[in-house]
Amino acid sequence: MKKSLISFLFGISVTILLALKVANFEPSASTAEVNKIEGLYIFTDSKPVMPYDSIGALEIGFITDTQYESIRGSLIKKARNKFPNADGLIMKFDKKGVDKCIVIKIH
User: Which terminal Cβ of the chain has fewer Cβ within 10 Å, N or C?
Assistant: First the structure.
């Protein structure tokens, strides 16, 4: 009786340990870490791996300074004012002069 109880408990222990095996994250060539600027994750030509909800969209028309940093800064400022609970921005740039971003909340 004692021997079968020990065998049973050992079997349960091994089963639990195998069930709790941690999956290893294997980064691929497309895996990256985005920058967090002024509290927002900035995704440019990319999207988050984590699930997210789109909570709004913003666009910026013609501006005098067409450098990336100034456009990014303008979109961040607009997003922080209009969507204070946002976690990030997915940026979309257009040669025609209307740059956009999707404002997201990451789960």
Answer: N
